[in-house]
Design brief:
With 194 residues, the chain is α+β, with helices and mostly antiparallel strands. Helix content is 17%, strand content 42%. The strands form three sheets. Strands 3-4-10-9 form a four-stranded mixed β-sheet. It has a four-stranded antiparallel β-sheet with strand order 5-6-7-8, with no helix packed on it. A two-stranded parallel sheet has the order 1-2.
Length: 194
């Protein structure tokens, strides 16, 4: 919503209706056009900037990742910018995601017990299983997702193959240097001219 302004046409895309509802309620959310979908649903209108946040790149599998980058390139004007973050695999953040114990918090539905487990199932792929138990009803829900931890060289190659140039990778959104222990890698690239 920070990008929304009087002279800006901002479009937000997410495959989750719940996330879109939450985004609409945020300050400035009413100034954004929201689309339920993914990169295939972005209207074919020229854009100056494509921004992916929330480590969304890790939630996109390899085949869809290549398509997503090509879709974004197709709507960007020559010289337009794509920018996104992805967790740095060298920092191995998932090792701290497995809960030693369970935590409980109060929700509108009563006390909720939470725990998670993360396991590297292949090089660059981490399976995260997040579990929630509603204490009052003893109902347990578990969500499992395989997250893709792409390294620096792989991200640079993928972005270049999709039609971007001047690819830079930083250790944060302030363009700080990428170090081995940087929690994220921020990729910024320009769309190749026609």
């Amino acid at each position: 919503m920070t990008l929304a302004g009087v002279d800006r046409d901002v479009l937000g895309v997410d495959p989750s209706a719940t996330m879109l509802d939450a985004a609409r309620r945020r300050p400035g959310g009413g100034s954004v056009s929201w689309i339920l979908g993914d990169s295939r649903d972005v209207p074919a209108e020229p854009r100056d900037l494509a921004l992916m946040t929330g480590n969304v790149a890790q939630h996109i599998g390899d085949a869809a990742w290549q398509r997503t980058l090509r879709d974004l390139r197709s709507v960007l004007v020559p010289g337009g910018t794509v920018a996104f973050e992805s967790r740095n695999p060298a920092a191995r953040a998932w090792e701290a995601w497995t809960s030693d114990g369970r935590s409980t918090r109060v929700t509108a539905a009563g006390p909720l017990e939470e725990w998670s487990e993360a396991t590297e199932i292949a090089p660059g792929v981490v399976r995260l299983v997040a579990s929630n138990r509603f204490v009052d009803t003893d109902e347990t829900l578990a969500y499992s997702e395989d997250l893709r931890f792409r390294g620096h060289d792989e991200l640079v190659c993928d972005v270049g193959a999709a039609g971007f140039e001047a690819v830079e990778v930083f250790g944060d959104w302030q363009r700080g240097p990428l170090r081995e222990d940087s929690p994220v890698m921020v990729v910024v690239a320009s769309a190749v001219g026609d």
